[in-house]
Amino acid sequence: MLYSEKVMDHFTNPRNVGEIENADGVGEVGNARCGDIMKVFLKIENGIITDAKFKTFGCGAAIATSSMATEMIKGKTVEEALGLTNKAVVEALDGLPPVKLHCSVLAEEAVKTALADYYDRNGIEHNIDVNCDGCCESCARH
């Protein structure tokens, strides 16, 4: 399996690793059965994502997609971040092997789950679809 230089860079030198205390939004997706778990923490001020961090348990592609996704949303508005797609993450990493594309889907879902959490905490109506398949039973969206 060949990874692009960008995937290898984000795997060996991941950006934004860690937690944000008192985060404004937190999203966790994946499960131990499938092997990848991603947790994204967001700091949001005046509708702008001022910081994004992640903790990922998984393969190199999972770490790389988490790193890239957090890089892509920092400094963006909440609305812009909602537009993040797994395809954009894959393109920013110069591609992923087909067997690892699910990692980019998890990264998109982790960001959107964190944004949904932000909206929920602030009593803001939303229709964020996190495509939950019920695999982890960790969210209230079943």
Task: Write the CATH architecture name.
Answer: Alpha-Beta Complex
Domain count: 1
Structural class, please?
alpha+beta
Shape: globular
Task: Report low-confidence residues grouped into runs of 5 or more.
Answer: 136-142
Secondary structure: number of strands: 3
Oligomer: single chain
Helix count from the secondary structure assignment = 5
The Rg value, from CA coordinates, equals 14 Å
The ordered string of helix (H) and strand (E) elements is: HEEEHHHH
Strand content: 15-25%
CATH-derived topology? Sufe protein. Chain: A
Q: What is the spatial order of strands in the main beta sheet?
A: 1-2-3
* Overall helicity: 25-40%
CATH class: Alpha Beta
How many angstroms separate the termini?
Answer: 35 Å
The chain-level mean pLDDT equals 90
Major sheet, described briefly? 3 strands, antiparallel
Can you give a write-up of this model?
It is a single chain. The chain is an alpha+beta fold and 142 residues long. The chain has a single domain (5-121), classed as Sufe protein. Chain: A (Alpha-Beta Complex). It is 39% helix and 19% strand. Strand 1 and strand 2 form a beta hairpin. Helix 4 packs across helix 5 (101-121). Mean pLDDT is 90; it is low at 136-142.
